Amino acid sequence: MEEKIKTTCLHSRHEKQGALMSPFAGYDMPIQYKGITEEHNAVRQDVGVFDVSHMGEVRITGPDAYKYVSHIFVNDVTGAPDGQIFYGMMCYENGGTVDDLLVYKVNDNEYFLVINASNIDKDVDWIRKNADGFDVKIEDQSPYYGEVAIQGPKAEETVEKVLGLKVKDIPFYNFKTFQAGDEEIIVSRTGYTGEDGFEIYGSHSYIQDVWDKLMEAGVQPCGLGCRDTLRFEVGLPLYGDELSADISPIEASLSMFVKLDKPEFIGKEALQKQKNEGVTRRIVGLELEGNAIPRHGYPVEVGGVQVGEITTGYRSISTGKSVAMAMINKPYDKLGTNVEVRIRKKTFPAVVVKKRFYDKNYKK
Predict the structure, then answer these.
(1) Which of 207, 215, 343, 356 is the most buried (most CB within 10 A)?
(2) Which of 78, 75, 10, 7 shows the shortest CA–CA distance to 265?
(3) Pairing of the two strands 48-51 and 220-222
């Protein structure tokens, strides 16, 4: 039986606004409103808002909350002040990635995890399954929360003026809770675009109200199309492309988020081995000559032999270059290495470059 497609609390608004809708991660989501380029540029130059209510939220509470989060998360939350956020991964024993996620530290006995929409059920099962012997309560709060991401150089000004939330003093990768009527909302200085911005979590009715206020103020609604072009340009991974059950954080060139000097965590042994012995392949950036556009799954070749494949590729909106992230076998992963990308029957010259094609503009 085909699974029924889910909708977010803002679905009817997207339809009314004439968004191009398409299934993504089991949800019917807006891909674009005015157009990907216009929405992308709004976020780079001004401000835009995304419906990200499809993301999952899991709350872990109890005397062993810190111990348990440390057990399932590759980054190190030890000694962090309350209100700090960490990016990292949960890994299988073999080092493959369960998911990449954000961990919000409320206090030592309470953590709030934000997980990818496509992985909610799998992640929640995995989190529950690995909690044996820990005194924790695990709540899947995904059905309760709606979420919007307000992103761009004018995000702070917009959130303060339009929504009346005092966010100026929230540092990057930190969050605050606010009282909104009789509910508590979460506002974090995070995003997935490489620009300054905020993610706001609240009840469905609160998020609907936020969306309506932003629309009234003329903020550009943005779809998942430009969310992908924005994250890609600044080298941020997408689960299913640059990370997966078959791709470890080390292979994804994300080892800075894997803290191997902390005590035991699931997957540590396998990741330590990869770090010590080196991996046979990794994610790198590629820049193609000319206008050819590389797409997910296209082969990367050297001398007619395949040495990798494209994970994400675009004609970068911000730089005008044809660029891609690709999983490449060693030794062809070194900066400056010449390779070719096969697009149908032709190959196009490319060179290995850093996988950040555009500089991030976070608030210092």
Answers:
(1) 207
(2) 75
(3) parallel
